[in-house]
């Protein structure tokens, strides 16, 4: 066996050794690092500078039943989370989320996060969709916030604290592979990860006792999305290619209020502060669909109602293809104090003045409820119950599952803090006693091939065109409404695009800062994940949460109150997805709440 | 606000929105092959409401895949794509084509004062190193059981400087920074300000000492380039002035 010592360079590949390697420097990754860093030799590897991560784009708030402004408690929060997720939520996980929310907020405040304050100097709270008082009686003020840049403040605060603790960062390193070896008992465990350094084009192997994935979402499988260009699901895709399962991938959230035509998000906080959705007739249509909480119904419901209004001819604008978000009745001083950024987005990108004009909005692909399955210790699962020792996941790339089939607003910033912290602690505990796992011979081989194949791609297909066709087909066929027919169509599109992907053109042949090459590799992950989303969606013959099958319009608790588990089981190039994706079910953890009809 | 769109009318709702050809002249540099940067022209068909970032993507995706720049969020929130556009530091994703004079070519080059790596990409390490040096984190000895109490007015005192996205538009527009790369630069001072004026923080004196250094706030010659460049509308020059005052008069 070759020894790969820390700091050595063998055949041009750099070798590093850390107890814990965290992949991703968004909210989840940095929250994990703050726990793990002081306890074990830890590195954070990120394809972006930490402060560029998309957690910084989050706007509205982070939920916690602090009861600073009105009566509230964590049990109500748990219930709302379970009901909001249309009962596909694992209730033990939801309870952890709601209970630990309170300390998660105090942790952030104590680290320096500048929350907005109440007149008596406490953390202020506001309303958000689906968060209610006493099991649905009325909206409750549960979202802690910092204007409409809560995510920005979280990301900055966590990075500031990483600086304080002297965390090791490897910035602009793209992790492209996870090294798995036999655990000696018929299973597998991680020995490290392999990364591509953007600045030099060099390959680095990070040997580690524990690996935490915190790579965020994959909104770029859709065209209209609130997600960043860099959210291509690399981490989820890497885990998938290792044969590990992905859970509940069919549940993808469409946020009701993206700027029409652009997808840039206008936070639900706007509706929390009183904004109203109106159709072409000026009608507040949500009153018809959700008489109790109206515009503050959960996102899946609001997005569907908007789509219905448009379909029935009540869309606004010259093509009747969007609805309006109206905040003209709010005091401009309130808008400036509480919604400054999103109103500037409307001005900058649509040229609309929200003080006086309603803003054109449309649902935008926003959040992956599904992802890498974990238990409540953030340990990754290799099937319904078996833990992969030393492998963890947290944040949007993971599926615990606290969001079930539809996430409530402000529960993701919460998720990344609660389960990021848990992942950091679990990994730190694990490495105390874990032995080093020996690296296999030439662990960089897979990435070297991937990179060289991409660099030597001299075909005729443009990366951007394949990506665009994928995104357009996903928007058309696997968005708010789905049918067997639409899902079959997009499955075929994906297979054809995969064929064409073999013949792509990468023009940049250089070593340094080769983003052309990386876009090619990222597209590979997008194609893989889009197929899992669609194939899982075809198999779920019911409508639940964000997954609306027009051909199966009701929820079917008898057959489908279960999580989907998808496995890569064959050659992804085979024409029939069924030949390379195996599906299974996993029971939902039910503790307190039996499924009920979801009315608001 | 960096992009003055308040006074421009909403986009016309006509059936076909006209496109037009825009010429971008981009300063290219390939470290693998070039000794010196060179300017290269590209023509692209754009809509008036497109961003400069869209134009760069169009070039990269349809003409020359080797064109290299950083970007992520595409709406002015991640700080990846500060660049010099027609001689001014801006975020490419927040600069609409219609707000530029499109009868002339649009000049695009990397921000100045940081080592050029490739095309529009510079080495950000020196910039982040200055940021880290001002101790940009809350220093507080108390261990409260819940949140620390802070009044609405105390919170408002440092609101402006919490908005920073570390894009470096300010620092790389500063003539002092261009000639003296050791100068902390406006962004680091903005981030020190964010803590110096936070009522919960106890580390102001440490940071004021650091910024009283010969490469600290006294290098600032109040040229206001930084305030003009800031895409978040932060009053950067004012923040620097407040830090200068705090050094002279002690902790605020
Ligand atoms: C516009 C917007 C507004 C939102 N508003 C809210 C809100 O108000 N409340 C709420 O609760 N939620 C909100 N959300 C959701 C929430 O912000 C995200 O789900 C959450 O921030 C994700 O955090 P993360 O740490 O999992 O991932 P991210 O913050 O996306 O971080 C991912 C990290 O992984 C790294 N990475 C990815 N791939 C690789 C790779 N191959 N190699 C190395 N590193 C890699 C990236 O560099 C990055 O550092 C919003 C989301 C959006 C898009
Ligand atoms: S102060 Fe403004 S210009 Fe300077 S780094 Fe921060 S956001 Fe960018
Ligand atoms: S791409 Fe994020 S600021 Fe421009």
TrEMBL record, chain A:
<dbReference type="Pfam" id="PF02910">
    <property type="entry name" value="Succ_DH_flav_C"/>
</dbReference>
<dbReference type="Pfam" id="PF00890">
    <property type="entry name" value="FAD_binding_2"/>
</dbReference>
<keyword id="KW-0249">Electron transport</keyword>
<feature type="modified residue" description="Tele-8alpha-FAD histidine">
    <location>
        <position position="54"/>
    </location>
</feature>
<keyword id="KW-0816">Tricarboxylic acid cycle</keyword>
<feature type="binding site">
    <location>
        <position position="234"/>
    </location>
    <ligand>
        <name>FAD</name>
    </ligand>
</feature>
<dbReference type="InterPro" id="IPR015939">
    <property type="entry name" value="Fum_Rdtase/Succ_DH_flav-like_C"/>
</dbReference>
<dbReference type="GO" id="GO:0009061">
    <property type="term" value="P:anaerobic respiration"/>
</dbReference>
<dbReference type="InterPro" id="IPR027477">
    <property type="entry name" value="Succ_DH/fumarate_Rdtase_cat_sf"/>
</dbReference>
<feature type="domain" description="FAD-dependent oxidoreductase 2 FAD-binding">
    <location>
        <begin position="19"/>
        <end position="413"/>
    </location>
</feature>
<dbReference type="GO" id="GO:0008177">
    <property type="term" value="F:succinate dehydrogenase (quinone) activity"/>
</dbReference>
<keyword id="KW-0560">Oxidoreductase</keyword>
<dbReference type="InterPro" id="IPR014006">
    <property type="entry name" value="Succ_Dhase_FrdA_Gneg"/>
</dbReference>
<keyword id="KW-0472">Membrane</keyword>
<keyword id="KW-0813">Transport</keyword>
<keyword id="KW-0285">Flavoprotein</keyword>
<feature type="binding site">
    <location>
        <position position="407"/>
    </location>
    <ligand>
        <name>substrate</name>
    </ligand>
</feature>
<dbReference type="InterPro" id="IPR030664">
    <property type="entry name" value="SdhA/FrdA/AprA"/>
</dbReference>
<feature type="binding site">
    <location>
        <position position="267"/>
    </location>
    <ligand>
        <name>substrate</name>
    </ligand>
</feature>
<dbReference type="InterPro" id="IPR011281">
    <property type="entry name" value="Succ_DH_flav_su_fwd"/>
</dbReference>
<feature type="domain" description="Fumarate reductase/succinate dehydrogenase flavoprotein-like C-terminal">
    <location>
        <begin position="467"/>
        <end position="600"/>
    </location>
</feature>
<dbReference type="GO" id="GO:0006099">
    <property type="term" value="P:tricarboxylic acid cycle"/>
</dbReference>
Automatic annotation (TrEMBL), chain B:
<dbReference type="InterPro" id="IPR012675">
    <property type="entry name" value="Beta-grasp_dom_sf"/>
</dbReference>
<dbReference type="InterPro" id="IPR025192">
    <property type="entry name" value="Succ_DH/fum_Rdtase_N"/>
</dbReference>
<keyword id="KW-0001">2Fe-2S</keyword>
<dbReference type="GO" id="GO:0051537">
    <property type="term" value="F:2 iron, 2 sulfur cluster binding"/>
</dbReference>
<keyword id="KW-0479">Metal-binding</keyword>
<dbReference type="InterPro" id="IPR017896">
    <property type="entry name" value="4Fe4S_Fe-S-bd"/>
</dbReference>
<dbReference type="GO" id="GO:0051539">
    <property type="term" value="F:4 iron, 4 sulfur cluster binding"/>
</dbReference>
<comment type="pathway">
    <text>Carbohydrate metabolism; tricarboxylic acid cycle.</text>
</comment>
<keyword id="KW-0816">Tricarboxylic acid cycle</keyword>
<dbReference type="GO" id="GO:0022904">
    <property type="term" value="P:respiratory electron transport chain"/>
</dbReference>
<dbReference type="InterPro" id="IPR004489">
    <property type="entry name" value="Succ_DH/fum_Rdtase_Fe-S"/>
</dbReference>
<dbReference type="Pfam" id="PF13085">
    <property type="entry name" value="Fer2_3"/>
</dbReference>
<dbReference type="GO" id="GO:0006099">
    <property type="term" value="P:tricarboxylic acid cycle"/>
</dbReference>
<dbReference type="InterPro" id="IPR050573">
    <property type="entry name" value="SDH/FRD_Iron-Sulfur"/>
</dbReference>
<keyword id="KW-0408">Iron</keyword>
<protein>
    <recommendedName>
        <fullName>Fumarate reductase iron-sulfur subunit</fullName>
        <ecNumber>1.3.5.1</ecNumber>
    </recommendedName>
</protein>
<dbReference type="InterPro" id="IPR001041">
    <property type="entry name" value="2Fe-2S_ferredoxin-type"/>
</dbReference>
<dbReference type="InterPro" id="IPR036010">
    <property type="entry name" value="2Fe-2S_ferredoxin-like_sf"/>
</dbReference>
<dbReference type="GO" id="GO:0046872">
    <property type="term" value="F:metal ion binding"/>
</dbReference>
<dbReference type="InterPro" id="IPR017900">
    <property type="entry name" value="4Fe4S_Fe_S_CS"/>
</dbReference>
<feature type="domain" description="4Fe-4S ferredoxin-type">
    <location>
        <begin position="154"/>
        <end position="176"/>
    </location>
</feature>
<keyword id="KW-0560">Oxidoreductase</keyword>
